[in-house]
Structure formats: C-alpha cells, structure tokens
C-alpha cells in the first residue's frame, strides 16, 4: 500500500512541475530548470550522500554515459518543458509529456529491435 501512495505523489509532483513552470512563465526556462534541479539537489543530498560515496568507483568508471544521460534526460528535458510552456497551455504540455513513455517503447522496438 505504501508504494501506491508514493506513486500518487509522483503523479502530483509531475503535474505540479508543469503547473509551476506555467506559473513562473516570466522567468527564462534555464533559470527555472536550474532552481528546480538545485532544490532537488539540496533536498536529496542528505538522503543519498553516503550511498553516493559507496558508488563512487562505479560512477568514475561510467561517468561519460552518466553525464550525457544527466544532461539530456534531466537538464535539457526540463528546460524544453519550461520553454514549451511559454508557447502553449499546460494541458498541451502535459499531454505531450504523457506520450513520451509510449514513444520510447515504439522507438526502442523499431531502432533497437527490442
């Protein structure tokens, strides 16, 4: 039951991300993304610091793909979401963001033959 409650919070946070991005539409998208990621870093640092130290050798071994995935999957994605909110409604952005998992499955089956 606990995991279902956490999943509900995930949905609320994702929806809140789009709504807050639309509410802060006066700021540039990079600024909104920076402060969102900075707040997440400050919040998660005490929780995951010890575990990150234990995983440091693994990170150093695979830092290039992890860095690319971090930049494209986290930083660019949020920046593009906030930039798109300047041109369309939050509803349209939410619908397009909802399509991403389905599109990922389709593209992975076509491109990677999985």
TrEMBL record:
Entry-linked InterPro entries: AA-Vitamin_Transporters (IPR050638), EamA_dom (IPR000620), EmrE-like (IPR037185)
Domain EamA: 3-114
Tree of life domain: Bacteria
Gene Ontology CC, one term: plasma membrane
Chain segments annotated as transmembrane: 5-21, 27-45, 66-87, 93-112
Subcellular location: Cell membrane
Keywords, ordered alphabetically: Cell membrane, Membrane, Transmembrane, Transmembrane helix
Protein topology in the membrane: Multi-pass membrane protein
SUPFAM superfamilies from the UniProt entry: Multidrug resistance efflux transporter EmrE
Primary localization: membrane
Family label: Belongs to the EamA transporter family.
Protein name: Carboxylate/amino acid/amine transporter
Species per Swiss-Prot/TrEMBL record: Halobacillus karajensis
């Amino acid at each position: 039951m606990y995991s279902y409650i956490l999943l509900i919070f995930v949905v609320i946070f994702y929806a809140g991300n789009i709504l807050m991005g639309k509410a802060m539409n006066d700021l540039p998208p990079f600024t909104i993304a920076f402060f969102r990621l900075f707040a997440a870093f400050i919040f998660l640092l005490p929780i995951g610091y010890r575990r990150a130290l234990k995983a440091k050798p693994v990170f150093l071994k695979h830092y290039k793909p992890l860095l690319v995935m971090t930049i494209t999957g986290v930083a660019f994605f949020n920046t593009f979401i906030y930039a798109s909110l300047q041109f369309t409604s939050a509803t349209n952005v939410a619908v397009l963001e909802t399509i991403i998992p389905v599109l990922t499955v389709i593209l992975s089956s076509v491109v990677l033959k999985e």
